[in-house]
Specification:
This protein has 184 residues and is α+β, with helices and mostly antiparallel strands. The protein is built from 3 helices and 8 strands; from the N terminus they run βββββααβαββ.
Length: 184
């Protein structure tokens, strides 16, 4: 699923208008099989939405600083999700700039915390449905297939640390895309 989300649109409707990003970087997390996953030790009040149903958001606060959003994709009761790492703004760019408080387009959504801030996603969106009919959804369009064909790199995940699954090649990124996050 992490690879399949590359090139898809993540759309959020706000009272002040619609904002959308084209996903250019994701990471997979596999629950009980994955020490880097929030679901590794089973369900807790904080991670309950990560256990399904699929097609929802799992949103958490990272390091007490910024929110991160994951698409839940495992069957109900199984903790599998895809971290949304970076996207290219394609709609509502002025509102995205205002939320981020910066002018540099490249930095608007290049990283999981920037992505959620750009789209106004907070902990209150935890468990929100991404199926059409709600205020946010993922969708494919005529450009999605082109993104799928232009060279998606599969690499190690970023920022987990030794022994937490950092060696797993479960990060997917459009090779050389200017809106992808930068590794240190």
């Amino acid at each position: 699923m992490a690879r399949d989300l590359i090139g898809c649109l993540l759309v959020v409707d706000h009272p002040d208008g619609r904002a959308a990003l084209r996903l250019v970087e994701t990471e997979a997390y596999r629950g009980a099989l994955d020490p880097g996953s929030h679901g590794y030790r089973g369900p807790r009040p904080r991670n309950q939405s990560m256990f399904g149903p699929p097609g929802r958001l799992y949103v958490y606060l990272s390091y007490g600083v910024h929110f991160c959003a994951n698409v839940v994709c495992g069957p109900e009761g199984v903790s599998e999700a895809v971290l949304l790492r970076a996207g290219e703004p394609v709609a509502g760019v002025d509102a995205i700039r205002a939320r981020r408080g910066i002018e540099s387009d490249r930095l608007l959504a290049s990283g999981p915390g920037r992505l959620t801030q750009a789209l106004g996603i907070t902990r209150e969106h935890d468990g929100a449905s991404l199926l059409r009919g709600g205020s946010m959804w993922c969708a494919r369009d005529e450009l999605t297939q082109r993104f799928q064909e232009i060279g998606i790199s599969q690499t190690k995940r970023i920022g987990l640390g030794a022994g937490r699954g950092d060696e797993l090649p479960w990060r997917f990124v459009v090779a050389g895309h200017p809106f992808a996050s930068r590794t240190r």
